Protein backbone atom coordinates (compact mmCIF):
# COMPACT_ATOMS: atom_id res chain seq x y z
CA UNK A 1 0.00 0.00 0.00
CA UNK A 2 2.82 2.42 0.87
CA UNK A 3 4.68 1.67 -2.37
CA UNK A 4 1.49 2.19 -4.37
CA UNK A 5 1.01 5.60 -2.73
CA UNK A 6 4.59 6.56 -3.55
CA UNK A 7 4.22 5.54 -7.20
CA UNK A 8 0.97 7.52 -7.50
CA UNK A 9 2.52 10.61 -5.92
CA UNK A 10 5.55 10.33 -8.20
CA UNK A 11 3.31 10.07 -11.28
CA UNK A 12 1.30 13.17 -10.39
CA UNK A 13 4.44 15.14 -9.51
CA UNK A 14 5.98 14.22 -12.86
CA UNK A 15 2.76 15.08 -14.67
CA UNK A 16 2.56 18.45 -12.89
CA UNK A 17 6.17 19.36 -13.67
CA UNK A 18 5.80 18.33 -17.31
CA UNK A 19 2.82 20.60 -17.94
CA UNK A 20 4.29 23.45 -15.89
CA UNK A 21 7.59 23.39 -17.78
CA UNK A 22 5.81 23.34 -21.11
CA UNK A 23 3.64 26.33 -20.21
CA UNK A 24 6.37 28.26 -18.37
CA UNK A 25 8.65 28.20 -21.42
CA UNK A 26 6.01 30.05 -23.44
CA UNK A 27 6.95 33.71 -23.89
CA UNK A 28 3.32 34.88 -23.84
CA UNK A 29 2.49 33.35 -20.44
CA UNK A 30 3.82 34.68 -17.13
CA UNK A 31 4.88 32.07 -14.61
CA UNK A 32 1.96 32.81 -12.25
CA UNK A 33 -0.59 32.15 -15.01
CA UNK A 34 1.23 28.97 -16.06
CA UNK A 35 1.27 27.74 -12.45
CA UNK A 36 -2.43 28.42 -11.84
CA UNK A 37 -3.49 26.78 -15.09
CA UNK A 38 -1.27 23.75 -14.37
CA UNK A 39 -2.88 23.38 -10.96
CA UNK A 40 -6.37 23.54 -12.49
CA UNK A 41 -5.40 20.90 -15.09
CA UNK A 42 -4.00 18.68 -12.36
CA UNK A 43 -7.17 19.08 -10.26
CA UNK A 44 -9.34 18.21 -13.28
CA UNK A 45 -7.47 14.99 -14.01
CA UNK A 46 -7.38 14.04 -10.33
CA UNK A 47 -11.15 14.49 -10.20
CA UNK A 48 -11.50 12.36 -13.32
CA UNK A 49 -9.33 9.61 -11.78
CA UNK A 50 -11.38 9.71 -8.58
CA UNK A 51 -14.74 9.10 -10.26
CA UNK A 52 -13.42 6.82 -13.01
CA UNK A 53 -11.81 4.54 -10.41
CA UNK A 54 -15.04 3.91 -8.51
CA UNK A 55 -16.21 0.26 -8.50
CA UNK A 56 -19.57 1.19 -10.05
CA UNK A 57 -17.82 3.01 -12.90
CA UNK A 58 -15.46 0.09 -13.48
CA UNK A 59 -18.37 -2.37 -13.53
CA UNK A 60 -20.12 -0.22 -16.14
CA UNK A 61 -16.97 -0.01 -18.28
CA UNK A 62 -16.40 -3.75 -17.94
CA UNK A 63 -19.82 -4.50 -19.46
CA UNK A 64 -19.18 -2.37 -22.55
CA UNK A 65 -18.27 -3.99 -25.89
CA UNK A 66 -15.12 -2.86 -27.69
CA UNK A 67 -16.96 -0.37 -29.90
CA UNK A 68 -18.82 1.07 -26.92
CA UNK A 69 -15.55 1.40 -25.03
CA UNK A 70 -13.92 3.32 -27.89
CA UNK A 71 -16.96 5.60 -28.17
CA UNK A 72 -16.89 6.27 -24.42
CA UNK A 73 -13.18 7.05 -24.64
CA UNK A 74 -13.77 9.62 -27.38
CA UNK A 75 -16.59 11.22 -25.39
CA UNK A 76 -14.44 11.43 -22.26
CA UNK A 77 -11.51 12.89 -24.19
CA UNK A 78 -13.78 15.46 -25.81
CA UNK A 79 -15.35 16.40 -22.49
CA UNK A 80 -11.99 16.78 -20.77
CA UNK A 81 -10.71 18.85 -23.69
CA UNK A 82 -13.68 21.23 -23.45
CA UNK A 83 -13.28 21.55 -19.68
CA UNK A 84 -9.55 22.27 -19.96
CA UNK A 85 -10.12 24.74 -22.81
CA UNK A 86 -12.77 26.53 -20.75
CA UNK A 87 -10.38 26.75 -17.81
CA UNK A 88 -7.70 28.17 -20.08
CA UNK A 89 -10.14 30.75 -21.40
CA UNK A 90 -11.16 31.82 -17.89
CA UNK A 91 -7.56 32.10 -16.63
CA UNK A 92 -6.46 33.98 -19.75
CA UNK A 93 -9.29 36.50 -19.41
CA UNK A 94 -8.57 36.97 -15.71
CA UNK A 95 -4.76 37.09 -15.68
CA UNK A 96 -3.49 38.15 -19.10
CA UNK A 97 -3.66 41.47 -20.92
CA UNK A 98 -6.45 41.63 -23.47
CA UNK A 99 -4.08 41.68 -26.46
CA UNK A 100 -2.17 38.62 -25.24
CA UNK A 101 -5.41 36.76 -24.47
CA UNK A 102 -6.82 37.50 -27.92
CA UNK A 103 -3.61 36.29 -29.54
CA UNK A 104 -3.88 33.03 -27.64
CA UNK A 105 -7.54 32.64 -28.62
CA UNK A 106 -6.67 33.31 -32.25
CA UNK A 107 -4.21 30.38 -32.28
CA UNK A 108 -6.41 28.15 -30.09
CA UNK A 109 -6.90 25.25 -32.54
CA UNK A 110 -3.39 23.73 -32.05
CA UNK A 111 -3.78 24.21 -28.29
CA UNK A 112 -7.15 22.43 -28.27
CA UNK A 113 -5.69 19.58 -30.31
CA UNK A 114 -2.83 19.31 -27.81
CA UNK A 115 -5.34 19.19 -24.95
CA UNK A 116 -7.22 16.42 -26.76
CA UNK A 117 -4.01 14.40 -27.14
CA UNK A 118 -3.16 14.86 -23.45
CA UNK A 119 -6.71 13.89 -22.43
CA UNK A 120 -6.56 10.79 -24.61
CA UNK A 121 -3.21 9.79 -23.15
CA UNK A 122 -4.44 10.21 -19.58
CA UNK A 123 -7.71 8.31 -20.26
CA UNK A 124 -5.87 5.41 -21.91
CA UNK A 125 -3.26 5.35 -19.15
CA UNK A 126 -5.97 5.25 -16.49
CA UNK A 127 -7.84 2.47 -18.30
CA UNK A 128 -4.68 0.35 -18.59
CA UNK A 129 -3.85 1.00 -14.95
CA UNK A 130 -7.31 -0.13 -13.83
CA UNK A 131 -7.13 -3.27 -15.97
CA UNK A 132 -3.72 -4.08 -14.51
CA UNK A 133 -5.01 -3.49 -10.98
CA UNK A 134 -8.04 -5.69 -11.67
CA UNK A 135 -5.85 -8.45 -13.09
CA UNK A 136 -3.41 -8.20 -10.18
CA UNK A 137 -6.23 -8.32 -7.63
CA UNK A 138 -7.82 -11.32 -9.33
CA UNK A 139 -4.48 -13.10 -9.44
CA UNK A 140 -3.90 -12.46 -5.73
CA UNK A 141 -7.41 -13.72 -4.91
CA UNK A 142 -6.88 -16.87 -6.96
CA UNK A 143 -3.53 -17.45 -5.28
CA UNK A 144 -5.14 -16.99 -1.86
CA UNK A 145 -7.97 -19.39 -2.72
CA UNK A 146 -5.47 -21.92 -4.03
CA UNK A 147 -3.41 -21.59 -0.85
CA UNK A 148 -6.49 -21.99 1.34
CA UNK A 149 -7.66 -25.03 -0.63
CA UNK A 150 -4.22 -26.62 -0.41
CA UNK A 151 -4.00 -25.92 3.32
CA UNK A 152 -7.40 -27.56 3.82
CA UNK A 153 -6.35 -30.60 1.80
CA UNK A 154 -3.04 -30.86 3.65
CA UNK A 155 -4.90 -30.48 6.95
CA UNK A 156 -7.16 -33.39 6.02
CA UNK A 157 -4.17 -35.50 5.03
CA UNK A 158 -2.38 -34.67 8.27
CA UNK A 159 -5.38 -35.59 10.41
CA UNK A 160 -6.00 -39.02 8.99
CA UNK A 161 -3.74 -41.99 9.48
CA UNK A 162 -3.74 -44.59 6.76
CA UNK A 163 -6.40 -47.19 7.70
CA UNK A 164 -4.12 -49.93 6.38
CA UNK A 165 -1.25 -48.65 8.53
CA UNK A 166 -3.45 -48.47 11.65
CA UNK A 167 -4.89 -51.92 10.98
CA UNK A 168 -1.38 -53.41 10.75
CA UNK A 169 -0.36 -51.80 14.04
CA UNK A 170 -3.43 -53.15 15.83
CA UNK A 171 -2.82 -56.61 14.39
CA UNK A 172 0.78 -56.54 15.59
CA UNK A 173 -0.33 -55.38 19.03
CA UNK A 174 -2.84 -58.22 19.24
CA UNK A 175 -0.13 -60.72 18.27
CA UNK A 176 2.54 -59.31 20.57
CA UNK A 177 0.25 -59.11 23.59
CA UNK A 178 0.06 -62.90 23.57
CA UNK A 179 3.74 -63.37 22.65
CA UNK A 180 5.78 -60.57 24.24
CA UNK A 181 3.94 -58.05 26.38
CA UNK A 182 7.01 -55.84 26.84
CA UNK A 183 7.52 -55.52 23.10
CA UNK A 184 3.80 -54.85 22.70
CA UNK A 185 4.04 -52.02 25.23
CA UNK A 186 7.02 -50.54 23.38
CA UNK A 187 5.10 -50.70 20.12
CA UNK A 188 2.10 -49.05 21.73
CA UNK A 189 4.30 -46.28 23.19
CA UNK A 190 5.83 -45.59 19.78
CA UNK A 191 2.41 -45.54 18.15
CA UNK A 192 1.18 -43.12 20.83
CA UNK A 193 3.97 -40.70 19.88
CA UNK A 194 2.81 -40.78 16.27
CA UNK A 195 -0.81 -40.23 17.23
CA UNK A 196 0.15 -37.31 19.47
CA UNK A 197 2.07 -35.75 16.60
CA UNK A 198 -0.84 -36.24 14.21
CA UNK A 199 -3.34 -34.83 16.71
CA UNK A 200 -1.49 -31.71 17.88
CA UNK A 201 1.42 -30.70 15.66
CA UNK A 202 -0.60 -30.98 12.43
CA UNK A 203 -2.63 -27.91 13.41
CA UNK A 204 0.42 -25.64 13.40
CA UNK A 205 1.68 -23.78 10.37
CA UNK A 206 5.32 -24.54 11.18
CA UNK A 207 7.08 -26.66 13.78
CA UNK A 208 10.67 -27.07 14.92
CA UNK A 209 12.71 -29.32 12.65
CA UNK A 210 13.59 -31.36 15.74
CA UNK A 211 9.93 -32.38 16.12
CA UNK A 212 9.64 -33.48 12.50
CA UNK A 213 12.85 -35.51 12.78
CA UNK A 214 11.63 -37.11 16.03
CA UNK A 215 8.41 -38.10 14.29
CA UNK A 216 10.33 -39.63 11.39
CA UNK A 217 12.54 -41.59 13.76
CA UNK A 218 9.51 -42.94 15.65
CA UNK A 219 7.85 -43.84 12.37
CA UNK A 220 10.95 -45.75 11.24
CA UNK A 221 11.10 -47.60 14.58
CA UNK A 222 7.46 -48.60 14.31
CA UNK A 223 7.85 -49.82 10.75
CA UNK A 224 10.96 -51.77 11.70
CA UNK A 225 9.05 -53.61 14.44
CA UNK A 226 6.03 -54.55 12.35
CA UNK A 227 7.69 -55.26 8.98
CA UNK A 228 9.29 -58.43 7.70
CA UNK A 229 12.70 -59.31 9.06
CA UNK A 230 14.35 -59.13 5.64
CA UNK A 231 13.41 -55.45 5.16
CA UNK A 232 16.44 -53.25 5.85
CA UNK A 233 15.60 -49.89 7.41
CA UNK A 234 18.25 -47.17 7.73
CA UNK A 235 17.59 -43.83 9.44
CA UNK A 236 20.46 -41.33 9.42
CA UNK A 237 19.84 -37.72 10.46
CA UNK A 238 22.11 -35.11 11.98
CA UNK A 239 20.83 -33.86 15.36
CA UNK A 240 18.36 -30.98 14.99
CA UNK A 241 17.34 -28.36 17.53
CA UNK A 242 14.69 -25.64 17.67
CA UNK A 243 16.70 -23.14 15.62
CA UNK A 244 14.90 -23.76 12.31
CA UNK A 245 11.25 -24.51 11.56
CA UNK A 246 9.56 -26.53 8.83
CA UNK A 247 6.01 -27.18 7.64
CA UNK A 248 4.64 -30.21 9.53
CA UNK A 249 4.50 -33.53 7.65
CA UNK A 250 6.56 -32.11 4.80
CA UNK A 251 9.13 -34.88 5.17
CA UNK A 252 6.77 -37.43 6.69
CA UNK A 253 4.76 -37.67 3.46
CA UNK A 254 7.83 -38.93 1.59
CA UNK A 255 8.53 -41.50 4.32
CA UNK A 256 4.96 -42.80 4.35
CA UNK A 257 5.06 -43.10 0.58
CA UNK A 258 8.35 -45.04 0.73
CA UNK A 259 7.05 -47.64 3.19
CA UNK A 260 3.80 -47.91 1.28
CA UNK A 261 5.51 -48.83 -2.01
CA UNK A 262 8.70 -50.59 -0.89
CA UNK A 263 9.14 -53.97 -2.62
CA UNK A 264 12.09 -56.27 -3.31
CA UNK A 265 13.71 -55.44 -6.64
CA UNK A 266 15.09 -57.91 -9.17
CA UNK A 267 18.56 -57.64 -7.62
CA UNK A 268 17.16 -59.09 -4.39
CA UNK A 269 17.54 -55.85 -2.45
CA UNK A 270 14.75 -54.78 -0.10
CA UNK A 271 15.26 -51.61 1.94
CA UNK A 272 14.24 -48.06 2.88
CA UNK A 273 17.20 -45.74 3.48
CA UNK A 274 17.01 -42.23 4.84
CA UNK A 275 19.70 -39.56 5.18
CA UNK A 276 19.36 -35.96 6.23
CA UNK A 277 21.71 -33.06 6.95
CA UNK A 278 21.35 -29.42 7.94
CA UNK A 279 23.87 -26.62 7.43
CA UNK A 280 24.32 -23.81 10.01
CA UNK A 281 22.46 -21.37 7.73
CA UNK A 282 19.35 -23.61 7.50
CA UNK A 283 19.93 -25.45 4.21
CA UNK A 284 18.23 -28.84 4.65
CA UNK A 285 19.14 -31.80 2.45
CA UNK A 286 16.76 -34.76 2.66
CA UNK A 287 17.31 -38.01 0.76
CA UNK A 288 15.15 -41.12 0.78
CA UNK A 289 15.46 -44.33 -1.23
CA UNK A 290 13.30 -47.41 -1.34
CA UNK A 291 13.54 -50.50 -3.50
CA UNK A 292 10.78 -51.15 -6.01
CA UNK A 293 10.05 -53.21 -9.07
CA UNK A 294 11.67 -51.93 -12.25
CA UNK A 295 8.52 -52.48 -14.30
CA UNK A 296 6.41 -50.23 -12.10
CA UNK A 297 5.66 -46.84 -13.72
CA UNK A 298 6.80 -43.69 -11.96
CA UNK A 299 3.22 -42.42 -11.76
CA UNK A 300 2.36 -45.31 -9.44
CA UNK A 301 4.49 -43.71 -6.72
CA UNK A 302 3.34 -40.12 -7.32
CA UNK A 303 0.12 -40.41 -5.36
CA UNK A 304 -2.11 -37.72 -3.90
CA UNK A 305 0.21 -37.17 -0.92
CA UNK A 306 3.26 -36.45 -3.09
CA UNK A 307 1.20 -34.17 -5.33
CA UNK A 308 0.09 -32.12 -2.34
CA UNK A 309 3.55 -31.93 -0.83
CA UNK A 310 4.91 -30.60 -4.14
CA UNK A 311 2.22 -27.90 -4.16
CA UNK A 312 2.90 -27.17 -0.50
CA UNK A 313 6.61 -26.71 -1.26
CA UNK A 314 5.78 -24.31 -4.09
CA UNK A 315 3.62 -22.18 -1.79
CA UNK A 316 5.62 -22.37 1.45
CA UNK A 317 9.14 -22.23 -0.06
CA UNK A 318 8.88 -20.46 -3.43
CA UNK A 319 12.24 -20.14 -5.14
CA UNK A 320 14.18 -21.70 -2.24
CA UNK A 321 13.70 -25.42 -2.70
CA UNK A 322 14.58 -28.15 -5.19
CA UNK A 323 12.76 -31.48 -5.34
CA UNK A 324 13.89 -34.41 -7.46
CA UNK A 325 11.75 -37.56 -7.76
CA UNK A 326 13.09 -40.35 -9.95
CA UNK A 327 12.94 -44.10 -10.44
CA UNK A 328 16.00 -45.95 -11.66
CA UNK A 329 17.55 -49.42 -11.36
CA UNK A 330 14.85 -50.76 -9.06
CA UNK A 331 14.98 -47.73 -6.75
CA UNK A 332 12.59 -44.87 -6.10
CA UNK A 333 14.64 -41.84 -5.00
CA UNK A 334 13.61 -38.60 -3.34
CA UNK A 335 16.06 -35.72 -2.98
CA UNK A 336 14.88 -32.48 -1.43
CA UNK A 337 16.89 -29.35 -0.76
CA UNK A 338 15.05 -26.56 1.04
CA UNK A 339 16.07 -23.36 2.78
CA UNK A 340 14.45 -23.26 6.22
CA UNK A 341 13.58 -20.14 8.18
CA UNK A 342 14.53 -19.56 11.82
CA UNK A 343 11.81 -20.32 14.37
TrEMBL record:
One Pfam match, given by its short name, reads His_kinase
Q: Which InterPro entries match?
A: Bact_2-comp_sensor_kinase, Sig_transdc_His_kin_internal
Q: Which organism is it from?
A: Hymenobacter cellulosilyticus
What lineage does UniProt assign to this protein's organism? Bacteria, Pseudomonadati, Bacteroidota, Cytophagia, Cytophagales
Q: Any idea where the Signal transduction histidine kinase internal region domain is? A: 152-223
Please list the GO terms describing molecular function. Answer: phosphorelay sensor kinase activity
Q: What is this protein called?
A: Histidine kinase
- Bilayer-crossing residues are 7-25, 31-49, 69-92, 112-129
Q: What are the protein's UniProt keywords?
A: Kinase, Membrane, Transferase, Transmembrane, Transmembrane helix
KW Chloroplast (keyword) present: no
The entry's cellular-component GO terms read:
membrane
Amino acid sequence: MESKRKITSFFWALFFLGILLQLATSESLPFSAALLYTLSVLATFRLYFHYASRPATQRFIGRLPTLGLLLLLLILCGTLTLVLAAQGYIWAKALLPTAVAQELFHDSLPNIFGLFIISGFVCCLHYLFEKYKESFTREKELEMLKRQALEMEMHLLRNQLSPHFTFNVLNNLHFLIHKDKNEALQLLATYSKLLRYYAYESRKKTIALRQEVAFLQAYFELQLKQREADLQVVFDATPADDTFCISPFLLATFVENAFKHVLPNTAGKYYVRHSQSLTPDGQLTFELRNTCREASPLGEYNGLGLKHVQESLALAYPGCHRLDLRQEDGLFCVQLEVKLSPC
